[in-house]
Design a protein that fits this description.
The chain contains seven helices and 34 strands. With 549 residues, it is of the alpha+beta class. Strand 11, helix 3 and strand 12 (191-193) form a beta-alpha-beta unit. 45% of the residues are buried.
């Protein structure tokens, strides 16, 4: 039989390419942001075997044809945690641009991957995932990682405690699991890293993510002056140099529209298992107030929480050094459930919006007008569809977004404009039957909450002597409030002091008509006189005078 030389040559070339792909010797990829994410990035990987790796990159997709790529770089090498870590530091990139890359080494060519630089203009909406504490349970961690790949955010803010014991084996497993954040089409999600208490030193973070900051304290802008993310370190002194740096940077970036912070230890943990962090309250919270920190992402406690906007205050209406302030306060969220052991959420505050205990991270949208925060329940990520690359802000089918039992809504909305920050809730067509979560259809339906505008305007005219009196239960501190609803609608129960300053609130959306008995916690309040006011359908349903002894 006569052999066709051209056909033979083609088959030989094909087998050669396949062999190169099969025997590629790279893995454990990660993309890292520390400086300007619109023009810089760090691409890192573990050189599993082979020698002489070379990084090839281009804005055009050349597949495995490494000779066509316009950028060719030799990586920096750092052996750490039992891995042969390779770092390529990229500069001069084009904002909001996708870059394709491969690695060629002595044994083959890697799979092609890509990343996208951040936009540098404030007119482009941002999607960010924020969370932390992934250290123990790989199944839960892998679910959360898979969810990242499905949601295709601009970046992940990770607040520390990557592993339990900071060992080489654990880090190798962590980076193996991190590969699930790579989307099906090969997209890397950049990570912005903070240090937790389970990282034995700053060097653990520096060695594996290529940070230049020796203190793991840094900040970067997204979308030009749209947002600035502050990464702080609770494992080094929070005062001194770190506080000075924070104040100076906040002052010099006062023009940035939105400011976010991430750090490991929460100022006021929502589990009794964790200690209060008074030094952070004293040294950081006043700066957050002075310079308008809009959102703070905390970790470490292994519970779920969100607060109303709060500011530091030690007055008579404050609790643990904070008081609710919808105009000027910071919203605190967290507290780290990416796979670490869950704890009881048994330490709520008067200014707590909602709390829980389940595996989750926060999904944050930012534009010129507002920030939106959703808490994503990450278990069962394989049952969630991928977002469309053309609309990464449309929640995919099957995603579960926490709708807390408190009735305060599935979406926290922090608004700009006259410095007023409002809380919105979104109601969607389908709900999970057994869990406090929202199942999204293809087109979610939402409306702005009216709960915040239903308070009676003439509360100051209330006469103490002419309304019924209630007293909290002596042992439990519970205050039982009875009222009737004649027409279905949103109900708000408020407890205010004699200065008409709100100290406690319970919101009940879409309450049917009928007789109700609800309880408010008062054990956090000082003895004295208060008013309990029940509003519904923009009118007062019931008033009580409350005497706490």
């Amino acid at each position: 039989m006569r052999v066709n030389p051209i056909k033979t040559a083609c088959i030989t070339c094909l087998l050669t390419v396949v062999a190169l792909q099969v025997f590629s010797a790279t893995g454990r990829f990660r993309a890292v942001w520390e400086n300007d994410p619109s023009t810089t990035a760090v691409i890192a990987w573990d050189q599993l075997s082979g020698t002489d790796p070379v990084f090839y990159m281009d804005v055009n997709n050349y597949g495995q044809n490494f000779g066509e790529y316009g950028v060719k770089k030799n990586p920096e090498i750092l052996v750490a945690e039992g891995m042969n870590n390779q770092f390529v530091r990229l500069q001069g990139l084009i904002p909001n641009t996708t870059y394709y890359f491969i690695i060629k080494d002595s044994e083959g060519i890697s799979r092609q991957l890509f990343f996208t630089t951040a936009p540098n203009k404030a007119d482009q909406r941002l999607s960010i995932i924020a969370g932390g504490d992934s250290r123990n349970y790989r199944e839960a961690r892998r679910d959360a990682n898979l969810m990242v790949g499905k949601l295709r955010p601009h970046c992940v803010m990770f607040g520390g405690d990557f592993t339990a014991a900071d060992t080489p084996t654990e880090w190798q497993e962590w980076l193996d699991d991190w590969q699930l954040t790579i989307s099906k089409d090969g997209r890397l999600t950049p990570i912005i890293v903070a240090r937790g208490n389970h990282e034995e030193s700053n060097q653990s973070i520096i060695n594996l993510f290529g940070l230049r900051s020796q203190d793991v304290v840094y900040a970067l802008n997204l979308g030009g002056d749209l947002a600035r993310i502050y990464t702080l370190n609770t494992m080094i002194p929070v005062g001194g140099n770190q506080r000075d740096w924070l104040e100076n940077d906040l002052r010099s970036h006062a023009h940035v529209q939105w400011k976010l912070a991430q750090y490991h230890h929460p100022m006021r943990p929502h589990t009794k298992r964790k200690a209060e962090k008074n030094d952070q309250v004293v040294l950081w919270a006043p700066l957050f107030l002075e310079f308008g920190m809009n959102l703070s992402v905390e970790c470490d406690a292994h519970v779920v929480k969100s607060t109303w906007p709060i500011r530091p205050d030690n007055g008579p209406e404050s609790f643990e050094g904070f008081v609710r302030d919808d105009e000027n306060g910071t919203v605190y969220i967290g507290e780290g459930c990416w796979g670490a052991p869950l704890r009881a959420n048994d330490d709520d505050k008067p200014w707590t919006r909602a709390s829980g205990s389940f595996n989750q991270f926060n999904w944050i949208f930012i534009d010129r007008e507002k920030m939106e925060v959703r808490t994503i329940m990450t278990d069962g990520a394989n049952r969630v569809a991928d977002v469309s690359p053309s609309n990464i802000f449309l929640p995919p089918v099957g995603i579960r977004i926490w709708d807390p039992p408190s009735g305060n809504g599935a979406v926290i909305v922090i608004r700009k404009g006259e410095q007023k920050r409002g809380m919105d809730e979104e109601i969607f067509a389908a709900r999970s039957g057994t869990q406090q979560a929202t199942m999204f259809p293809s087109t979610p339906i939402s409306h702005k909450s009216e709960l915040a505008v239903e308070e009676e305007q003439d509360d100051k005219k209330i006469n103490w002597e002419t309304i019924p009196q209630l007293m909290p239960d002596v042992s439990s501190g519970d205050l039982a409030i009875k009222y009737s609803v004649d027409q279905p609608g949103n109900v708000v129960i408020r407890l205010v002091n004699l200065k008409m300053q709100e100290v406690t609130r319970l919101e009940i959306p879409n309450q049917p008509s009928g007789e109700y008995l609800k309880t408010l916690k008062t054990d956090h309040l000082k003895p004295g006189k208060y008013f309990a006011i029940v509003n519904g359908n923009r009118k007062v349903l019931k008033r009580y005078r409350v005497l706490k002894r």
